[in-house]
Write a structure and sequence with these properties.
It is a single chain. The chain has about 210 residues and is of the alpha/beta class. The protein is built from 5 helices and 8 strands. The protein has helices spanning about 60-75, 80-85, 140-155, 160, 180-195; strands spanning about 1-5, 25-30, 45, 90-95, 110, 115-120, 125, 135-140. A 6-stranded mixed sheet has the order 1-5-6-4-2-3. The chain has a two-stranded antiparallel ribbon with strand order 7-8. The longest helix has 18 residues, at about 180-195. The protein is globular and about 45 Å long. The chain starts with a strand and ends in a 12-residue tail after the last helix.
Length: about 210
């Protein structure tokens, strides 16, 4: 899923100077400051690095996100997408946990304004056979990869990223828009095939 509203203003950076609104580069995983009661105003970040000993905080969301990224890279799934997010030097991406109390209608989302990616490491996407190759559950790690692909598109192909939705009459309107169709077919499908998961034929699914 893609969006436009950012939430980066409530963060501070503990990896090289306080008060940064977003990272200079790379993948940063954000979590509330455990020593501050005003967690919505004071967040800390951990910078992801592949194949390095984990020295991050005792925070389940950060640890699960690191494990998910490691799993994808260990199995050469979406490697080009993840390495782009790690290496791009024109911006970075902020990974945050989906808040079910305020973000109830989707489980993953990328917001270009602020380069924020939301996901929940414990929530997958259920798909039925009317919208996929078979009925089944798409695990959370695929949702993370899907949103990272939107980040890459927003940087490399903003015209497609900002494309208008398909009309209802168009044969593949279920994909929502050309950007979602591209990410599903060119990023999700190869990952799903490698992991023996259902292939989505639409942008639909249930939590």
């Amino acid at each position: 899923s893609r969006g436009s509203n950012g939430h980066s203003g409530r963060m501070s950076d503990n990896m090289g100077g306080g008060g940064k609104q977003r990272p200079t580069y790379g993948i940063k995983i954000w979590y509330p400051n455990p020593s501050n009661d005003r967690t919505q105003d004071d967040w800390l970040s951990y910078t992801y690095g592949y194949n390095q000993e984990y020295n991050g905080p005792n925070n389940d969301f950060v640890e699960q996100t690191v494990r998910a990224l490691d799993f994808l890279l260990d199995n050469d799934i979406g490697t080009d997408v993840i390495k782009f997010a790690m290496d791009v030097n024109t911006s970075g991406i902020n990974i945050q946990q989906t808040d079910p109390t305020t973000q109830c209608c989707w489980y993953t989302k990328y917001e270009v304004n602020g380069y924020n990616l939301f996901w929940d490491p414990y929530t997958g996407l259920y798909v039925g056979d009317e919208d996929a190759s078979e009925t089944g559950l798409i695990p959370p790690v695929i949702g993370l990869l899907h949103e990272l692909a939107h980040f890459r598109s927003s940087m490399l192909n903003p015209e497609r990223y900002n494309s208008k939705p398909y009309s209802f009459q168009f044969w593949n309107f279920k994909y929502s828009n050309p950007e979602e169709k591209f990410v599903i077919q060119n990023v999700e499908w190869p990952a799903a095939r490698k992991l023996n998961l259902p292939l989505r034929f639409s942008h639909n699914g249930g939590i």
